[in-house]
Amino acid sequence: MLCNAYLLEGVMSARTLRLGEMAHIVGQGVGVRSPRSEFPLDPGLRDEADNLMLLCADQHGEIDAQGALDVFTVERLRRLKQEHEDRIRHVTGLGPERATAVVRLLGSVHGQTVELSRQAAAEAVTARDRFPLFLESYARHGVEIDLRQIPGERPVTSEDAVRAAAGSRAYFQHAVRVIDDVVEHQLRAGIERDAVQHVSVFGFARLPLLVYLGSRLDDTVPTDVFQRHRAEESWRWPDEGGAGAQFAVNVDRDVPAGSDAVVVVNVSGTIGRHEVPEELSALRRYVISPVGVATGPDILRSRASLGLLEDTLRGFLALLEVEAKTVRRLHVLPAVPMSAAVALGRVHHLQVHPQLVIYERLAGCYESTLEIGRSDG
Fold it and tell me: Of 41, 272, 300, 329, whose CB is crowded by the most CB atoms within 10 A?
């Protein structure tokens, strides 16, 4: 029960088996060989449901082991039982229309990774009154895109900047193939057979790859994007109240639009004008930034803020269609949280909008690392 193992099927045989064991919180007997039997509970109540837990064999053995009785006290086991039953009651009370297919993109950023387990994702979507669909017929862990074993992580020292940019190109090409393979053969297959009617996306990877993942998501399927919040060390949205942060688009360099333009997206940080690559300095340049508040890593504390940023990004791309129709290639310099990178990819239409050239800070300067969509220029 506590480990969430499926207790009606064997892992090795795949046969239907009864693997659960009935465990007592307060021992069934009253002797020293019966764990926690000294707790004052009437013997007639010890076989009642309130004193029983369904566990796998490993858990049963551990909670009753002599060396662990100080850890698995009556009070703690009762609390764990109550929490588990409350969660199951909540999940089973949700209708099938509340199911969501969980997509997890796992990578590293500057050599760092974060906890993005199946359980962490399940807890986050359950808090949103949905229950997680992991597409078990495809993979035990659901739609999981694991980039952590891809070779070619770039060096970060300034003397290796040129080599770093070249190495990143190979890394991104490999990563894109991995993303495409999983999306096509797992997620899209689930959508085509109507097993997926809603998607929940969790991603920790380099920003260009998060944008790319967003661009591969089916825009016809309702999608929630989740953000890891450092203060809580959780993927749940901590702030569901309030109106959310507002964002605006401004022209930072007002010159006639050609085939190329630049957009600087300042959300989690600020990219200064001096940081824009010299080869882009003469192009028409837009800046997207929050209104009335400073940029910062925790600016997207609510789903409302992410939704408002997504609306701003969508409106910006529509603006280009009106005032900069000649733009075929849009150079994107992002200082954004990871959820915003996914949102950027989602609002971009491959056949309608300009090609996105995504930049990343490599060894102190911004280098183009990934193109999304096709350029007609």
Answer: 300
Task: Flag whether pLDDT at 156 surpasses 70.
Answer: no
Largest interatomic CA distance in the chain: 88
Reply yes or no on whether the pLDDT at 160 is more than 50.
Answer: yes
Q: What pLDDT sits at residue 94?
A: 61
Q: Does 3.40.50 match the CATH number of domain 247-372?
A: yes
Query: Using an 8 Å Cβ cutoff, are 256 and 325 in contact?
Result: no
The reply to whether 96-225 and 247-372 are identical in fold is yes
Residue 296 burial (10 A CB sphere; 0-12, 13-18, 19+): middle
Query: pTM for the complete prediction?
Result: 0.75
Domain boundaries, the chain: 21-92, 96-225, 247-372
Structure tokens at 374: 């096709």
Q: Tell me the HSE value of 320 on the side-chain side, using a 13 A CA sphere.
A: 28
Percent above pLDDT 70 for the chain = 90
Q: Please provide the CATH number assigned to the domain covering 96-225.
A: 3.40.50
Q: Is there a contact between 17 and 10 (Cβ–Cβ < 8 Å)? A: yes
For CA atoms 175, 212, 298, 286, the dihedral sign is positive
Q: Quick one: average pLDDT of 290-307?
A: 92
Give the span between the Cα atoms of 56 and 7, in whole angstroms. 7
Q: Which two tokens stand for residue 366?
A: 């911004």
The strand pairing partners of 24, in sequence order, are 52
Neighbour tally for 197: CB within 10 Å: 16
List Cα–Cα distances, 312 to 164, 165, 243, 259, 305, in angstroms.
32, 30, 15, 22, 11
Round to whole Å and give the CA distance between 355 and 372. 6
Q: Residue 264 forms beta bridges with which residues?
A: 287, 333
Question: Is 74:36 a contact under the CB 8 Å cutoff?
Answer: yes
Query: Quick check: 259 and 235 in contact, CB under 8 A?
Result: no
Report how far residue 336's alpha carbon sits from residue 267's, in angstroms, rounded to the nearest whole number: 5
